[in-house]
Amino acid sequence: MAEMMIEEIREYLPHRYPFLLVDRVVEIALGESIVAYKNITVNEELFQGHFPDKPLFPGMLTLEAMAQTAGILGFKTMDKKPEDGSMYMFVGADNVRFKRQVVPGDQLMLRARVVSVRRGIWKFEVSADVDGELCASATILCADR
Fold first, then answer.
1. Could you say which of 3, 8, 56, 127 is the most buried, measured as most Cβ atoms within 10 Å of its Cβ?
2. Range of the domain at 25
3. Could you say which DSSP state residue 105 is in?
4. CATH code at position 113
5. Please, what is the average pLDDT of the chain?
6. Residue 50 designated active-site
């Protein structure tokens, strides 16, 4: 399937600045997998406090970016949007690992793969990498509410 630019991403995620953490989807196979990215720039407000002398993108925001990427895959697969009254909630994370720091100038590649879907609970394997080097990985659960 074709790329999704930010205008279409905003149709599938209710998040807005400064909490929309997916800039572009580069590939998506409905019901299977997705690859997206977030460009990390020093201009982001969070770097004023995390940390002024050594800016690091917080690991929890990397986890949130992976969850948002999985959310796009879930919404697109179900053919639902937040404007339809559907809410896709991040409800759990297991086996969370952070392997590499993410810094301004990085392009954080975000990947999600559907593991299972049962009674509206989606399980995904997610990962984030920069230049092919693993930054973070997890198994996450999302619920369609």
1. 127
2. 6-33+41-100+107-144
3. T
4. 3.10.129.10
5. 95
6. yes
